[in-house]
Amino acid sequence: MVIGCSRYRVTVAVTAFLGATLPAPALAQQVLASNLADLSLEELTNIEITSVSKHAERLSDASASVFVITAEDIRRSGATSLTEALRLAPNLQVAQVNASGYAISARGFNNTSANKLLVLIDGRSVYSPLFAGVFWDVQNVMLEDVERIEVISGPGGTLWGTNAVNGVINVITRSTQDTQGALAAAGRGSRESDAALRYGGTMGTDGSYRVYGTYLDRGHTSTANGSEVNDAWHNGQVGFRADWNRPGDQFTALANAYRGQLSQPEPGELVITFEPAPALGNVTTSGENLTARWSHTLQSGGNFSAQTYYDRTERTVPPLFSESLDIFDLQLQHSLQPLGIHTPVWGAQFRYDMDHTTNSDRVALLPASVNQKWASLFGQDEVALSKDLRATLGIRVERNDYTGYEFLPSARLAWKFTSDNLLWTAASRTVRAPSRLDRDTFAPGKPPFVLAGGRDLRSEVANVYEVGFRGQLAARFSCSITAFHADYDFLRTEALTPSRTAVVFSNDMQGRTSGVETWGTYQAASFWRLSAGFTRLSENLHLKPGGVDTQAPLAEGLDPAQSWMLRSSLDLPYQSELDAMARHVSALSNPSVPAYLALDLRAAWKPNKQLELSISGQNLFGSGHGEFTSVLTRSEFGPSVFFKILGEFR
């Protein structure tokens, strides 16, 4: 957490140190069993996804801006963490802040405390009620077990609820039927080392399981002048998954537990200009979660599913505060069989959390302990207007303890004008509900440098309009392009109280964003695939009449105006591979971060079916670059190398 003060301004941001995912469809199983270079582009576009409509549908039929990161994409990228794997999605902004910290968003509003992106791991939301964002340093999935990552840029509030404003990331791991036997992986590089173990077996005639453990160790980074940044990161995680499949029924149980430690770099999580900086200690993190999911095929032809999970997290940030959070969540969904031209689905969700903080004399959440609940109902109907034209109408009604009832409607229209090409358009309303940080923060000081949460703060609102195309324009070329425009209102700012004795959070800013995002894949040869992506973003934030927070609109300077990437995947003789990715991100203006171009390379060799040896190089252009924050504290990421050995035995 950073709190900085000027004459009439107190700013609060949760940084990465504050300490800053359905059974696999049959076609997806075929993808996992094969090298992607051996699959046609048509087969790739027919991969089934679930995040857009909450039921299985072909990627080529999805009326949304969605990009799928496959298991093969992750393996061939050489990514060592979930956050690094997300760089493969051209519709995301991913900026590394330091060893463990990342700023990740879609369509703008990026920050280490970005709060308009919903992230799920095997159906479990990892959104934190503390600041309505994600602690990326504890989202450590075993990448070898990931089946796919579905990345939606744009609103998803109707199906997923508040805070799915600018995008949804859905991480889906593989069924235990596909992870039988043993796997061991170990890697070491110039910046980090890691290890992973997994074993899978069967339980009777219809069940299977796996257990796993991972460990990672990242060393300190450095600034442009060579000064060491005290930001080392260590994390260990264990877990299991079990699946039972019987005619008409599927049941899954998952559990994970982790422990981590992060060094806390200067100036720390808290900066108050009229006080000396506090002595810093290491941030410690821990957590456990358990998820159970049941899916039942009804005799009528529909489907009923139920999911529940318990998630406990603990975080200590000395000398500022500590937090323990317990979350209970229950979700029900009923997909009806088609009724004439209608295919309806409806569901309900209830979420309850118990949040307790230990405060300090520098920052506090008042009250220290809060129990909160969220309840929602949603319904959606897909209407076949003709053979090639369908409309999707939906609405979610959600209630939270801070702002009461919120209404999240959406409407989509899709025209499949040929078997391989889809035109679609959509209009949606979504909101970002206040967090504990917005409502309950108190930072003492000398007036007017007292910060108090905004008790009257309302939800931020976005009205979003999109039009897109997805198709296969030639036997060897497929692409997707989306243009979007969003109008935002009631964005969070700061204001002085009438007595001018404190600063409070308010809703005094409006804004709009517009842009385009596009990507495509070209099969140059049976052994060579090229992929590219490009995004362009325009933002305009401005204060409403009476607003005094002149610094708030400058947040648009945290987002690059454009970015592009180019990937090459080449299969070579003798069971070897060569992969490359070049990525360019334009400059940031507030604070100033120069544009950069990075090149990543990976070479791999499989001497047999069980063993893979690889070497990866990152940031191979130039001496190094920064990606976020000011020059005085910005970590620079220069060339690095990583060696990995992976063995899988069935």
Question: What does this molecule look like?
Answer:
- The chain has 650 residues and is mostly beta strands.
- The protein is 5% helix and 57% strand.
- It is built from six helices and 40 strands.
- A hairpin with a 4-residue loop joins strand 24 and strand 25.
- The longest helix is centred in the N-terminal third of the chain and has 8 residues.
- It starts with a strand and ends with a strand.
- The N terminus is likely disordered.
List keywords for this structure.
single chain; 650 residues; mainly beta; 22-stranded antiparallel beta barrel; 5-stranded mixed β-sheet; globular
Q: What is the compact description of this entry?
A:
This protein has 650 residues and is mainly beta. The relative contact order is 0.13.
What's the total count of β strands? 40
Structural class: mainly beta
What gap, in angstroms, lies between the N and C termini?
A: 46 Å
Number of helices: 6
Helix content: under 10%
Q: How large is the radius of gyration?
A: 24 Å
User: Per DSSP, what share of the residues sits in E-state strands of 2 or more residues?
Assistant: over 45%
User: What is the makeup of the main sheet?
Assistant: 22 strands, antiparallel, barrel
Overall mean pLDDT: 90
- Report the uncertain regions: 1-34
Taken from the alpha-carbon principal axes, the silhouette is globular
